[in-house]
C-alpha cells in the first residue's frame, strides 16, 4: 500500500537499460544492447532499438526532476539535525510558485517514462512470442523485472505530482545520510482499501494478535481496519503469569522529555540498569537524534567497559544488531522504529526493556498529519490509542515464553503525571510494579532478576 520512488535508484535502473558510451562513439551500451546482439529476438529488434535512446532521454528527465525537487525540498526544510526529514505535498504547497517548475519537469519525466514503457512492452512481447513456450534467459528476465519497477515508479510520479488521489498522502523525504531524495505515497484510509480488496472477496477474515486491543476493546483497530459492528470479538487471557514474571519500574523523579536535562538523566539510568543487569538490555527510543546522543554519552562511560553498546544506524542495522545482541555476553542495544515490534529473544538473553519516551506519533509525520486532519479529536482518536498500542508492543519484547523473567523501565513520567497516563497504564499487563526514585531502579531490577 505504501510506495516510494528513490531518485538515484530510478536512475540506476534506466542506466542499466542504456547509457551513452564513455568514449562517445557507437550506440548506447547496457542491457538493451546486450539483448539486441542476441540472435533470437524475432520482431523485437526494432523495439530494442527505439528503447535505448528513450531510456537515455528518460534518465535525463528524471535527473532534472529530482534535482529541482531536491532544491525545493531543501528550501522548506532548512538546516536540520534529524537523520530524515519530510515535506508533505499538500494542496497549499501545490499552489506554491516553485511547484509549477516541479510539475513541468514531472510531466516531462512521466511522458518520457511512458514512451519507454511502451517500447519495452513491445520488446518483451516480441521475445516471448519468438520463444514460444521456452523459458527466457536471464537477460530477458532482468528486462521484465526492470520494466515492472519502472512502471511502478511511473505510476507514483504521475499520481503524486500530477494527478493526486484524495485518499492518499504524498511527501518527499530527504535522507541526509545517503543524500537521497525519496518520493513517497501512502493511503490515508486503509480500511476502505481492505473492504474493497480483502473482505469482499472472502467469506470470513480472522485477525489475531496479542496487541490488537486497547483499553479492553478493539475500537481503535476496527476503525483503522474498516470493520463494522457485525464483527465477532474475543479477548483471551494471557498464558503468562505477568505478576511473577515481569516487573514494571516507573521512576517518579525523571525530568520531562522536553527538559534539557532529560537526555543526561536517560543516559545515567540506562547505564545503571545495564550495569546492574549485566547488559541483556534493550532501550527503545522514539528519536534517532536522541538515540545518537545517548549512545555517544554511554560510549564515554568507564563504568560500562564490560558492556557491549550497540546503536541502531551507528553499529549496524536491525538484522546484524540482533545477531550480535544474541551472541554477545553483556549487550546493551539502543533501537528505535522497527525495534518496538517483531523481535523475539526469549530467555535470559533479553532481561530488561527500557522505554525512553511514550511512543506518540510525530505530529508532522505526513501520514499521521493527513489522518489527523480527518478527525474531530485527533489526539484521543488517533495519537493516544496509537501510542498506547505501540507501548504494548514494546512491552511484548520482554516476555516471550512462560519461563521468561524480566523488567520493563519507563522513563517518561508523563505516564504518572498526565491525565492520559492511565490509558498507557491500562494497556500494560498486570505485572509487579515499582514506583519511586530513579536511583533505586537499577537495584530493583537487579534484585528482581536475581530471584529464582
Explain the layout of strands and helices:
Layout (H helix, E strand, L loop, with lengths): L2 E4 H11 L13 H6 L8 H33 L6 E5 L10 H33 L6 H24 L6 E8 L4 E8 L2 H8 L21 H7 L16 H4 E6 L10 H16 L3 E5 L2 H12 L8 E4 L6 H10 L3 E6 L15 E4 L10 H7 L5 H18 L10 E5 L3 H4 L3 H7 L4 E5 L4 H10 L2
Parallel strand pairs: 5-10, 5-11, 6-8, 6-9, 7-8, 9-10
Antiparallel strand pairs: 1-4, 2-3, 3-4
Q: How are the strands of the largest sheet arranged?
A: 7-8-6-9-10-5-11
Instruction: Tell me, rounded to a whole number, the average pLDDT.
Output: 89
Uncertain spans: none
Helix segment tally: 16
Radius of gyration: 27 Å
What form results from the Cα inertia axes? elongated
Domain module tally: 3
Structure described in brief:
The protein has 452 residues and is of the alpha/beta class. The protein has 16 helices and eleven strands.
Amino acid at each position: 500500500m505504501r510506495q516510494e520512488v528513490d531518485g538515484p535508484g530510478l536512475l540506476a535502473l534506466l542506466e542499466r537499460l542504456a547509457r551513452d558510451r564513455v568514449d562517445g562513439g557507437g550506440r548506447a551500451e547496457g542491457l538493451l544492447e546486450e539483448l539486441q546482439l542476441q540472435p533470437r529476438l524475432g520482431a523485437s529488434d526494432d523495439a530494442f532499438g527505439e528503447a535505448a535512446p528513450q531510456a537515455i532521454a528518460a534518465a535525463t528527465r528524471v535527473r532534472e526532476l529530482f534535482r529541482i525537487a531536491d532544491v525545493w525540498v531543501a528550501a522548506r526544510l532548512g538546516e536540520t539535525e534529524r537523520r530524515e526529514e519530510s515535506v508533505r505535498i499538500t494542496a497549499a504547497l501545490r499552489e506554491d510558485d516553485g511547484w509549477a517548475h516541479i510539475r513541468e519537469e514531472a510531466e516531462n519525466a512521466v511522458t518520457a517514462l511512458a514512451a519507454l514503457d511502451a517500447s519495452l512492452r513491445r520488446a518483451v512481447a516480441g521475445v516471448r512470442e519468438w520463444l514460444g513456450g521456452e523459458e527466457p534467459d536471464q537477460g530477458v528476465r532482468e528486462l521484465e523485472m526492470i520494466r515492472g519497477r519502472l512502471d511502478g515508479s511511473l505510476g507514483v510520479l504521475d499520481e503524486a505530482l500530477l494527478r493526486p488521489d484524495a485518499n492518499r498522502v504524498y511527501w518527499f523525504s530527504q535522507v541526509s545520510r545517503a543524500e537521497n531524495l525519496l518520493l513517497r505515497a501512502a493511503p490515508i484510509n486503509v480500511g476502505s482499501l481492505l473492504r474493497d480488496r480483502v473482505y469482499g472477496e472472502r467469506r470470513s477474515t480472522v485477525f489475531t494478535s496479542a496487541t490488537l486491543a486497547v483499553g479492553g476493546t478493539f475500537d481503535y483497530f476496527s476503525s483503522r481496519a474498516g470493520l463494522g459492528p457485525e464483527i465477532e470479538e474475543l479477548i483471551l487471557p494471557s498464558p503468562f503469569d505477568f505478576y511473577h514474571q515481569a516487573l514494571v519500574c516507573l521512576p517518579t523523579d525523571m525530568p520531562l522529555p522536553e527538559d534539557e536535562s532529560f537526555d543526561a538523566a536517560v543516559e545515567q539510568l540506562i547505564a545503571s540498569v545495564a550495569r546492574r543487569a549485566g547488559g541483556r538490555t534493550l532501550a527503545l527510543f522514539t528519536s534517532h537524534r536522541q538515540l545518537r546522543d545517548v549512545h555517544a554519552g554511554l560510549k564515554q562511560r568507564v563504568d560500562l567497559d564490560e558492556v557491549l553498546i550497540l546503536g541502531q544506524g551507528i553499529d549496524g542495522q536491525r538484522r546484524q544488531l540482533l545477531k550480535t545482541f544474541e551472541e554477545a555476553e553483556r549487550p546493551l542495544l539502543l533501537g528505535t522504529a522497527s525495534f518496538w515490534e517483531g523481535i523475539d529473544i526469549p530467555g535470559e538473553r533479553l532481561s530488561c526493556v527500557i522505554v525512553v519516551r511514550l511512543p506518540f506519533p510525530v505530529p508532522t509525520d505526513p501520514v499521521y498529519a493527513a489522518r489527523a486532519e480527518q478527525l474531530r479529536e485527533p489526539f484521543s482518536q488517533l495519537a493516544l490509542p496509537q501510542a498506547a498500542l505501540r507501548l504494548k508492543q514494546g512491552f511484548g519484547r520482554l516476555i516471550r515464553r512462560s519461563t521468561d523473567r524480566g523488567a520493563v523501565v519507563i522513563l517518561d513520567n508523563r505516564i504518572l503525571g498526565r491525565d492520559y497516563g492511565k490509558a498507557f497504564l491500562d494497556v500494560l499487563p498486570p505485572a509487579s510494579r515499582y514506583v519511586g526514585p530513579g536511583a533505586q531502579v537499577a537495584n530493583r531490577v537487579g534484585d528482581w532478576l536475581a530471584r529464582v
